[in-house]
Write a structure and sequence with these properties.
One of its GO terms (molecular function) is DNA binding. This protein is mainly alpha-helical and 183 residues long. It is 85% helix and 0% strand. The longest helix has 59 residues, at 71-129.
Length: 183
């Protein structure tokens, strides 16, 4: 393409672009109020209606060459407005449902954690009331130590460890049952 043809092509495309921009500005001036009103009627929220209006005119701008002119333009804009408002409502409902489900799960986890924490506190209180050396024998046995190891650690006779553990277990169950009965 020679230099004159290039200049001619550029001027044609600039004229076409400026005509398209003028066409867009005219369409915006003529139809932005009705687009906003339809969006507001569907959404009942001014900020969301403004967002939908902006999206509709962005779609118009991106599709200037494909959009019908004159009478068909208004119908196209309103159809796009209704679709955008519907899509936005769906997205908001889905997001709301996800947030609600998350809040429900978090609430259930919190309630479960609180219940577990209360239970652990009750176990600790009951264990604190078990008399020594039965408490120490019981705790060490729960840690997996053998009777011999427990006897060495606590400086007790190995033959008495089994009865101390049994006594500690009975005392714990009695005290824990009392604590649970208060709830």
């Amino acid at each position: 393409m020679d230099g004159q043809a290039q200049v001619l092509a550029n001027s044609v495309s600039k004229e076409t672009a400026s005509e398209a921009l003028a066409s867009f500005d005219e369409a915006f001036e003529l139809h932005h109020r009705i687009v906003y009103r339809v969006a507001y009627a569907r959404l009942r929220d001014a900020a969301l209606a403004e967002d939908v209006t902006q999206e509709v005119f962005l779609k118009l701008y991106r599709n200037l060459g494909k959009v019908p002119r004159d009478e068909g333009l208004r119908a196209w804009l309103l159809r796009v407005t209704i679709n955008e408002a519907r899509d936005l409502s769906r997205r908001r409902r889905r997001a709301s449902a996800r947030e609600e489900a998350f809040a429900q799960r978090a609430s259930e986890r919190y309630a479960f954690d609180c219940e577990k924490r209360l239970e652990v506190d009750e176990v600790r209180r009951a264990l604190e009331r078990v008399r020594e050396p039965a408490r120490s024998c019981l705790l060490l046995q729960q840690q997996g130590l053998s009777y011999r190891e427990i006897a060495q650690i606590l400086s007790l006779n190995e033959r008495s460890i089994g009865s101390l553990i049994a006594r500690g277990r009975r005392e714990f169950l009695r005290l824990y049952g009392k604590l649970r009965g208060r709830r």
